[in-house]
Automatic annotation (TrEMBL):
The lineage of its organism: Bacteria, Bacillati, Bacillota, Bacilli, Bacillales. The keyword Repeat applies. InterPro entries: TPR-like_helical_dom_sf, TPR_rpt, Ycf3/AcsC/BcsC/TPR_MFPF. This is Tetratricopeptide repeat protein. Keywords: Repeat, TPR repeat. It comes from the Bacteria. SUPFAM superfamilies: TPR-like (SSF48452). TPR repeats lie at residues 19-52. Pfam families: TPR_19, TPR_8. Signal peptide: none annotated. PANTHER family: CELLULOSE SYNTHASE OPERON PROTEIN C (PTHR44943), TPR REPEAT-CONTAINING PROTEIN MJ0263 (PTHR44943:SF8). PROSITE patterns: TPR. The keyword rRNA-binding does not apply.
Amino acid sequence: MRESKSNKRGNVVSFTQDGSFFYKKGVEAYQNDELEQSIDYIKRAIEIEPDEPVFLCQLGIIYGDLRYYEEANECLEKVVSELDESMAECYYFMANNYAHLLKFDVAKVRVQKYLELDPEGEFAPDAESLLEIFLDPGRDKLLDGMMLPYRKPADIIVDHINRGKFELAEEDAKEHLGENPTDWDIYAYLAESLMYQNRLEEAKKILQDLLIKEEPNFLAQCLMAKLFVMEGNPDKEIWRNNLKNLRPMKDWHCYYLAKALFFVGEYSRAYKWYKKLYQASDFYKTPPYFHQMAIAAWKNGNKKKAKELWEKTRTIDQENEQISNEYLKVLSSAGDGVIPEDRWFIYSVPTLVE
């Protein structure tokens, strides 16, 4: 006998994805170091339950890890001012963020508030140490070098590559893989460092291994297209066209796609991806990123934007301001129609050919 529609409907189990569901997914992503995905989940949890202070506090913590200190403190300030003023840990996190922003007086007030609310709390020993530094007359010297943000091994390796330190990138990648042999993206960075050292066969083998896995590595797809162009492979146009059709969701993948498109000569497409990332608040923008975008802007005839980007780079990377100063000189002396050389994509002082 056939069941009636009403009986069938009664057998359906309703599943509601509440804020806690997305929060847990976000915490899992955070613990797996997938910070961008973690942000997406936590934001979804907040949309569903906007009055839950724990969700907003966690978002602030993640922003802090990504070095978006101002955005982090906006979240944390909202927690204690609008949702739950008793969440003492928010004051501790804010103190750290303000210290990174070199706003030490504000940081001191926040860390004192934390110790007032939770003198025996989880972060109390660190908070007391931080307060001692803030109260020390020679605090600037004590803080010198202490407020540098934590960088993951991948960040350091890619930074080496972007600055032209290819042998150092290779060394760090191999050392990391010795302890973390399943960190697949690091293999891609290793291959990239080898490519720049013209060790194409070694790089190709690594990339081929990454591409035959159940889930082909996105970075390997981008780098293989670059490698085929470098070696003049007959299939280079196929891989170049493949790059054009990629639509990555993750910001980091967008960044590597932009770099690959630039390398294979797709300057307009590369610049579009750089602009997309420029507008993305969750993507951490390093001095090499701004430099690369400046080169891409100039390649596309936007010298005004290139000038703006190098001036910004000079401000945020004063230790290496000579790099931006040199490019600003070259830019100002370049006539109309003059475009930068591809080799200037590396964040280093430009080598000029007379």
